[in-house]
Design goal:
The complex is a heterodimer. In chain A, 22% of the residues lie in helices and 30% in strands. By secondary structure, chain A is of the alpha/beta class. Chain A starts with a strand and ends in a 9-residue tail after the last strand. Chain B is elongated, with a radius of gyration of 32 Å. In chain B, the strands form two sheets. A five-stranded antiparallel beta sheet of chain B has the order 1-2-3-4-5. Chain B has a four-stranded antiparallel beta sheet with strand order 6-7-8-9, with no helix packed on it. Helix content of chain B is 34%, strand content 25%. The chains are: A alpha/beta, B alpha+beta. The interface between A and B is large, with 97 and 79 residues.
Chain lengths: 426, 238
């Protein structure tokens, strides 16, 4: 069996993987000084994930080399610091002069963002301040790109600890939308709830508590100064057990209960807004049932936005001139429009994992506008290289450029990414 | 007569007061939410071009105004909370790196390393020989994962296993494992088993502590949940 341990936090996560799909590189020892940072793979290209570890007190530094041309910026994020350890992050120029540092305490994560005025090689240093472990940290570097916030699939909904750490260790301080995707809609003993991505079941009351623990954790990290807008979400895929009965009434009611649950959560501190979301994927469910859930959400209670962050599976050609083109699973352009924009509460941050995704959503916009509707995007959702798909910058470029190319350019201000923790994610 | 005049004046005053209260109340300043700012830019772009603003956008702007009115109160409260917290944090003792030691966390919750894995062990324990069931654990894709062909699911009280093989090398089996442990720890493992072929879960044994599977050309093996180990030998009850 092949397996390596990538990440551990107690409490937190342990991730083992046998493959990285060219997703990350592992540090190469000895890289304990600037002069030793030269060998591949310790040279970082513009957007890269490196993993590294300190397994004893004799290993104290990991250096990585990166070339940055003038008038660029660099964003570095250190996450997955093992529980009980404290690692710090430094950025030096080629003369060894300190440019910036991040010196948080314990395992809460580190990040540096700075502009670079002079072209040249720069050196990122991860320093072991205290503790050591066989588990890996993750170092994410982005040169001159757009910043992405991180969103999460919830896999341990019933654990207060896990939800709290998820918020506290949210590995950056970037404002914008953060999605917490709680999985599938279920009904157990006449009680509506969810099945998370770890296969755990929870009713709405428990989901509310889980979100509150995330909020407390986010606010308990003294370095979290950015305001985030939380999107509490589910998907439209029926699970293997306890799925909702296949009728509009049940889907409507689930949407209504979900909305009421969100309405009952109070924003706090740097989590200033809480709205709803749905990962609506065309192959997962019918347009009728998905729209019933959307209606249940939007027609119940107070004013809350509902963000669709699903796919648009079916056609990558320009369908905008057709009356009401159809896609996978009998979905039509008018259905996608309804759950993404047509319904007054609905907004959209589409999943853009490939050039095909970008084309699908740009043509959807083109179709909407040609038919006298609106269809604008609040941003986009990337999966940051998961399973071989586009990394964040590729997703952004593909969507942004294709919108421009078709004459429908947008700022795409909210950029977030979400991925399973296999393979490792920053 | 004079009383009537006073009464009339009083009534006029009250009417004016009430109307102005309502009007002023409606015009109470509010913080525009991000969505409203975005929508207003969109409307402006249509207007600049002399084009009709689509009805759905106008409805959304109305919605966004109502949303903004409500969220303004939340935002103001949050900002006050932050101010108070920052003032408190400034007084907290500092550790040797100069970072505040959190004596007063944001809420009541204090992480508990002895927390049970989950208050409710899974009720749907069993084997699911169903590709569709397997794929419900992989939300990023509407159809399937590019790298692996997952075919069966085994659910035990605190663990979920998904099995299959690699697409580019069908002779390499794979098990994806998500498990909950005490203290809120989440275990996630994706393990490849070269030369074993596709792994198919068959049954649960030994109080759900053993997952029996078949692999290759019908050979039998098992996964020991407690040991967290796949054994490619037939299971014999101890």
């Amino acid at each position: 069996m092949l397996s390596i341990s990538l990440y551990a936090k107690v409490p937190g996560s342990v991730v083992n993987a046998t493959t990285n799909g060219d997703y990350y590189d592992e540090e190469k020892e000895n890289n304990d000084s600037i002069s030793a940072a030269n060998s591949t793979p310790n040279i970082i290209t513009s957007e890269r994930v490196m993993i590294g570890r300190f397994t004893s007190t004799s290993d104290n530094y990991d250096y990585y080399k990166v070339y940055i041309s003038s008038n660029n910026s660099i964003y570095i994020q250190l996450s997955g610091i093992p529980g009980g350890c404290d690692y710090d992050l430094y950025l030096y120029d080629q003369n060894g002069s300190l440019i910036s540092s991040s010196l948080n305490s314990a395992d809460v994560g580190e990040w540096i963002e700075t502009s670079i005025n002079t072209s040249g090689y720069y050196y990122i240093c991860v320093k072991r301040y205290s503790g050591y472990s066989n588990f890996y940290y993750r170092l994410y570097t982005e040169v001159n790109g757009v910043k992405f916030n991180q969103s999460f699939y919830i896999k341990n909904v019933n654990s207060d600890n896990w939800m709290y750490w998820l918020g506290r260790d949210h590995t950056n301080s970037v404002s914008g939308l953060v999605f917490l995707s709680f999985g599938a809609a279920v009904k157990i003993n006449n009680d509506y709830g969810i099945r998370d991505l770890g296969g755990n079941y929870a009713n709405m009351s428990r989901v509310k508590t889980a979100v509150e623990k995330f909020i407390q954790g986010y606010n308990d990290n003294p370095k979290h100064t950015a305001d985030i807008r939380l999107i509490v979400a589910i998907n439209n895929r029926p699970p293997q057990n306890y799925k909702l009965p296949d009728n509009n009434d049940e889907y409507f009611k689930h949407g209504a209960y979900f909305k009421n649950m969100i309405n009952s959560i109070s924003p706090s501190g740097h989590v200033k807004e809480i709205n709803g979301g749905i990962d609506a994927e065309l192959d997962w469910n019918t347009p009728t049932l998905t729209k019933a859930w959307v209606d249940g959400f939007s027609k119940t209670g107070n004013f809350k936005w509902l963000y669709n962050f699903g796919d648009h599976a079916g056609r990558t050609d320009d369908f905008s001139g057709e009356t009401d083109p159809s896609f996978n699973n009998n979905w039509r352009a008018s259905d996608v429009y309804y759950i993404s924009y047509g319904n007054t509460a609905s907004l959209c941050t589409p999943e853009i994992y490939s050039q095909g995704c970008a084309q699908e959503w740009v043509y959807q916009k083109k179709w909407s506008l040609l038919h006298g509707y609106g269809q604008y995007y609040e941003g986009l959702l990337s999966t940051n290289g998961f399973d071989g798909y586009y990394r964040n910058q590729e997703s952004y470029s593909a969507f942004y450029n294709f919108l421009q190319q078709q004459g429908y350019g947008e700022a795409l201000e909210n950029r977030t990414w979400i991925a399973l923790t296999w393979p490792a994610q920053p | 007569m004079k009383h009537k005049q006073y009464l009339l004046l009083f009534v006029i005053f009250m009417v004016v007061f009430l109307i102005s209260s309502v009007v002023l109340g409606k015009n109470e300043p509010f913080r525009k939410c991000n969505e409203l700012i975005h929508l207003e830019k969109i409307r402006e772009a249509y207007e600049k071009k002399g084009q009709k603003v689509p009805e759905d956008i106008l409805k959304k702007i109305e919605f966004a105004i109502e949303y903004s009115k409500i969220s303004t109160k939340d935002v103001e409260r949050c900002e006050q909370e932050i101010k108070e917290k920052e003032a408190m944090m400034a007084k907290e003792p500092k550790d040797e790196k100069g970072n505040p030691i959190l004596l007063h966390p944001w809420g009541d919750f204090v992480p508990n390393p002895f927390e049970e894995p989950t208050p409710h062990p899974k009720e749907d324990v069993g084997i699911f020989k169903d590709k569709e069931a397997a794929m419900t654990y992989f939300p990023p894709h509407s159809v399937e994962i590019e790298t692996y062909n997952f075919v069966t699911v085994a659910v035990t009280p605190y663990d979920t296993f998904i099995s299959g093989n690699k697409k580019c090398d069908e002779n390499t089996g794979v098990i994806y494992h998500i498990g909950m442990r005490r203290g809120g720890e989440l275990i996630e493992e994706l393990s490849e088993y070269p030369e074993k072929g596709q792994i198919v879960f068959e049954s649960l044994k030994n109080d759900n502590g053993i997952v029996i599977f078949s692999y290759g050309n019908g050979q039998k093996g098992y996964f020991d949940v407690k040991k967290n180990l796949a054994i490619f030998e037939e299971y014999h009850t101890p």
